[in-house]
Structure formats: structure tokens, C-alpha cells
Amino acid sequence: MTAALLAAAGVATCVWLWTAPNAAATRLSRLTSETTTDPAHTLLRAASLRLTGRTSPVRQADAWRAATIELCHALAAELSAGRPPGEALLRAMASVDLPEPLREVAAAARDGGDVPAALRAASPPQGGEGFHRLAACWEVAMTSGAALSTLVERVAATLRATRTHRQDVAAQLAGPRATARMLAALPALGLAMAAALGMSPLAFLFGSLPGLGCLVAGVALDVCGLWWTNRMAANAR
């Protein structure tokens, strides 16, 4: 009876863990909701994620990419209104509580410093591709006289297309990840069924050397399967 209760508790815990919303679906929902967010609020949220560091690197990178898109839109709008590049960048970032790296960008724009270098220095290791592209656009506009607003709009369009592709990939990976989690929980269901039939699987697994060997091997294979699935999904992304 005790073994059956323990097995039922284990099955309930596994079902609760593996049927929770998967990371891909959660990330897709969050990114989709960000498309209707105010630019200043989006950049503020990305800055907060950067400062607190409470989220995973993947989510921080996604937040920075979304914030870069909104910043490019705001900058292009200011440039189209006829403002000089430095002032346009300052106005685009004016309503945002900036983290320290972006404050350096604002200082460079205000004082006539090296804005491209400040943008590259402010870009995070993951999700900072847009800042590098924006820095390249700034250099091209300053050296060749090209319209910066046009270049920034193209960068924003490219980043939007890339984000849409990432969302599609995340949505397609949600199914395989959910299947892998369900398969990982099947051994616990088998233990519960064996306990219900009076076979005492827990006594065998924890009370004998062959049982301990089977338990260790099974857990190791289960964990390796989950790790391999997550690795393949990460490579696909």
C-alpha cells in the first residue's frame, strides 16, 4: 500500500512537471505580445532584464532583440522628422530608464563622441546583433552621407524578419519537446501500474543491488534522452 501511494505521488509530480507550459510556447507568447507594446516600455523592460539578470540567457537575448527593433523604429521616426542623428538618438532613448551601458551611448550622442563604438560596447553577447548593425549604419551615414533613417529602417525590417523566423521555429519545436517530456514521464507511470498490480517495484529498485542498478541506468538514460532532445532543439533554433 505504501509503495502504491509513493508511486502515485511520483506520477502526479511528473505529470505536473511535464505538462507545464513549455519554454518555447511561453517564449512565443511573450514575443507575440511584445509586438503591441509601447517602444519605451519594451526597451525599459529589456533594460530591467539586463540589470536584474533573473531570466535565462535566451530570454534576455530575445528581449534585447525586441528592444532593438523598437529603438530602431523610434530613431527612424526622429530622423524622418528632420532632427540630427545625435539628437534623434537622444530623443528616442529619452523616456527610458537606461542601464549603464546604454547611458554611455546617450552620453556619446550628446557630447559628439564615438556613437558606433558606444553601441558596440553596449551590445550584450547574445541579442546584440541589432546594436552592431546600427553602429555600422551610423558609420556609413557619417562617412558617405547616406540617409541614416533609410538604413535604420532596413535594419529594423531585417530584425523583424529574423524575429518572425525565430518565432516560427520555436512554435514548430514545441511539439517535439512536449512529446519528449511525455515519454520521459512514462517510466513513472509504469512504476505506478506495477505497484497497483502488487508487484512491489519500489522494494525491488531500492532494496536490492540489481534493482539499484536498474534504477540508476533508467534514470541516466531518461536524463540523457531529455538532454539530447533539448540539445537538438537548441541547435535547430
Determine the mean pLDDT.
75
What is the string of helix and strand elements?
HHHHHHHHHHH
Q: Between the first and last Cα atoms, what is the distance in angstroms?
A: 46 Å
- Which residue ranges are poorly predicted, with pLDDT under 50 across at least 5 consecutive positions? 19-53
SS content category: mainly alpha
- The tally of strands reads 0
Query: Which strand-content bin applies to the residues?
Result: under 5%
The percent of residues in helical segments reads over 70%
Number of helices: 11
Strand and helix layout:
Layout: H1 2-18, H2 23-34, H3 39-52, H4 57-80, H5 85-92, H6 100-111, H7 115-122, H8 129-144, H9 148-196, H10 201-207, H11 209-236
Highlighted features:
single chain; 237 residues; mainly alpha; 11 helices
Structure, explained:
The chain is an all-alpha fold and 237 residues long. The chain has two domains: 2-21 and 173-236; 23-170, no CATH class. The protein has eleven helices and no strands. It has helices spanning 2-18, 23-34, 39-52, 57-80, 85-92, 100-111, 115-122, 129-144, 148-196, 201-207, 209-236. The radius of gyration is 25 Å and the shape is rod-shaped.
How would you briefly describe this protein structure?
This protein has eleven helices and no strands.
